[in-house]
Specification:
The protein is α/β, with parallel strands linked by helices and 294 residues long. The chain folds into two domains: 4-123 and 272-293, Rossmann fold (3-Layer(aba) Sandwich), CATH 3.40.50; 126-266, Dihydrodipicolinate Reductase, domain 2. The chain is 39% helix and 24% strand. Strands 3-2-1-4-5-6 form a six-stranded parallel beta sheet, with helices on both faces. Strands 7, 8, 9, 10, 11 and 12 form a six-stranded mixed beta sheet that branches. α6 packs parallel to α8 (166-179) and α6 (126-139) packs antiparallel against α9. The radius of gyration is 19 Å and the shape is globular. The model has no long low-confidence stretch (mean pLDDT 95). Keywords: Aromatic hydrocarbons catabolism, NAD, Oxidoreductase. The active site is at residue 126. It catalyses: acetaldehyde + NAD(+) + CoA = acetyl-CoA + NADH + H(+).
Length: 294
């Protein structure tokens, strides 16, 4: 199958981690990395790897739009508002890793198939990528009346952007637990842990299910199936122990360890975002091929 050309907009840590992950894809061809600082590590690495390095931002890329059909935006929410309009006008598919939330939220194993005809989709949050699949797995067996998640990440893995958008994280993830996970009411909490050495990302999921549909075996199987599906594209995603049942409350403990492509292994919160973004792009690429061959 012919590879689909992709570009990365943003040459910071997230963009550079994407640069390395895309090299392993059997359907994506990374042709271009776009930034505004020619001395950034990301652009210099791209140049050394033979990838086109553009240091004049999105406008520089749009002068040569044939370079890519799919663009990852790993810049900022404010910048993405501008980028989204220009990329849409150029007919590009945009996968947004910023908090801008212009397009629909996607979580690959849950709802990506519903949005493959969109031109702009959003990766929601790291906590959402880790926990919404579990809430959905429970909900498909027993209706979830309330879902609460607590995401704990290393303080070192939270950059200025993350810290500036903590309130947005909780609102967006809470909404995702409801709209995508299926919970009637959702709540999200994030903790930045300053411990040294840095801790791995840990997430706890609490779900209150319908008391008339507490089938422990069926819920456990659904959760285990979902964990395996997420692990297929996030190798460091694990469930710690088995789900705990207390009457109609289900508790699940998760851990996300980064694969260490560019970011440290403790940055599982960032790794799950870049891994999910690649998964989304691969699905779009297959969808594009399917449309061409029809």
């Amino acid at each position: 199958m012919q590879k689909v050309k992709v570009a990365i907009l943003g040459s910071g840590n997230i963009g550079t981690d994407l640069l390395m992950k895309i090299q392993r894809s059997d359907i994506l061809e990374l042709t271009t990395m776009i930034g505004i600082d020619p001395l950034s590590d990301g652009l210099q690495r791209a140049h050394e790897m033979g990838v086109e390095a553009i240091d004049t931002g999105v406008d520089g890329f749009l002068e040569r739009p044939e370079l890519a059909d799919i663009v990852f935006d790993a810049t900022s929410a404010k910048a993405h508002v501008v980028h989204a309009k220009k990329l849409k006008a150029a007919g590009k598919i945009t996968i947004d890793l910023t908090p801008a939330a212009i397009g629909p939220f996607v979580v690959p194993p849950v709802n990506l198939g519903e949005h493959l005809d969109e031109c702009n989709v959003n990766l929601i949050t790291c906590g959402g990528q880790a926990t919404i699949p579990i809430v959905h797995a429970i909900h498909r067996v027993s209706p979830v009346a309330y879902a609460e998640i607590v995401a704990t990440i290393s303080s070192r893995s939270a950059g200025p952007g993350t810290r500036a958008n903590i309130d947005e994280f909780t609102r967006t993830t809470s909404r995702g637990l409801e709209l995508i996970g299926g919970a009637k009411k959702g709540k999200a909490i994030i903790i930045l842990n300053p411990a040294e050495p840095p801790i791995l990302m840990r997430d706890t999921v609490y779900a209150l299910v319908d008391e008339n549909f507490v089938n422990e075996d069926a819920i456990t199987k659904s959760i285990c199936d979902m964990v395996a599906e997420v692990q297929s594209y996030v190798p460091g995603y694990k469930m710690k122990g088995k789900p705990i049942f207390e009457r109609n409350k289900v508790t699940v403990f998760l851990q996300v360890e980064g694969i260490g492509d560019y970011l440290p292994a403790y940055s599982g919160n960032l790794d799950i975002m870049t891994a999910s973004a690649v998964k989304v792009a691969e699905q779009f690429a297959r969808h594009l091929h399917a449309r061409i061959t029809v």
